[in-house]
Amino acid sequence: MPQLDKDPQVVAEMFDGIAQRYDITNDVLSLGLTRKWRHEVTREIDPRPGMDILDLAAGTGTSSVPLVEAGAKVIAADFSAGMVAEGMRRHPEVDFVQADAVNLPFDDDTFDVVTISFGLRNVVDTERALAEMLRVTKPGGRILICEFSSPTARPLRASYTWYRDHLLPKVAGAVTRKAGSYEYLAESISQWPDQVELGKLMVRSGWTRVAYRNLAGGIVALHRGTRPVADPQ
Ligand SMILES: C[S@@+](CC[C@H](N)C(=O)[O-])C[C@H]1O[C@@H](n2cnc3c(N)ncnc32)[C@H](O)[C@@H]1O
């Protein structure tokens, strides 16, 4: 399969175009499973009052709301003006910033936790984004990545791959009337590193104590890591 072109401007415009129907489409395509996955993300982050959290590629802020509700100080950052505008309209209680994951407009050592849900796969340079997330995390702070991954059991892998490549783009095209965006979704998932490979990228980018947990048999994986207290010389 040819390498997917993730031209940042094209990706941002694609999300601008689906912003208004993004959340309903997620619920339809995942048969409601995204709600459970988001609950698991929040549980892993364990947000507390006073905690500084960056929710990167936050889209319309659906992944940010539970963190805000727990009392954390949350910045929801995304590079799509359309997603940010829709997020600000729906969730005035969330602080949105338009920002690119590969060049974050935040000082070093700012956040206790950085998190990214269903976003890292879309970034043109994964390692650069992981390094930027490391830079803005406080020493000893954590990262939590929620992303599509590789089902571990062969029968699930076969039926899921068929669903993802054939049915999903058609259903999504009907819900959003933007078929191309969801062909991109299927392709970007199929070309994304599996659980072990993403873990290796995190380690290479400087994260320690890297581990993952599968959800829905590995359709989604939650990767976590810690910024070392002393950076390697
Ligand atoms: C699938 S949505 C996920 C939104 C949200 N985190 C959620 O869980 O619903 C992916 C988001 O990643 C954003 N994105 C993609 N590349 C980005 C980048 N380089 N910097 C910031 N945001 C980016 C897109 O604009 C889009 O809103």
TrEMBL record:
Its EC number is 2.1.1.163. Pathway: Quinol/quinone metabolism; menaquinone biosynthesis; menaquinol from 1,4-dihydroxy-2-naphthoate: step 2/2. It comes from the Bacteria. The keyword Transferase applies. It catalyses: a 2-demethylmenaquinol + S-adenosyl-L-methionine = a menaquinol + S-adenosyl-L-homocysteine + H(+). Pfam families: Ubie_methyltran. GO terms for biological process: menaquinone biosynthetic process; methylation. CDD domains: AdoMet_MTases. One of its GO terms (molecular function) is demethylmenaquinone methyltransferase activity. It is an enzyme of class 2 (transferase). Gene3D superfamilies: Vaccinia Virus protein VP39. S-adenosyl-L-methionine binds at residues 60, 78, 100-101, 117. The keyword Methyltransferase applies. Keywords: Menaquinone biosynthesis, Methyltransferase, S-adenosyl-L-methionine, Transferase. Belongs to the class I-like SAM-binding methyltransferase superfamily. MenG/UbiE family. Methyltransferase required for the conversion of demethylmenaquinol (DMKH2) to menaquinol (MKH2). HAMAP family: MenG_UbiE_methyltr. This is Demethylmenaquinone methyltransferase. It comes from Rarobacter incanus. The lineage of its organism: Bacteria, Bacillati, Actinomycetota, Actinomycetes, Micrococcales. The gene is menG.
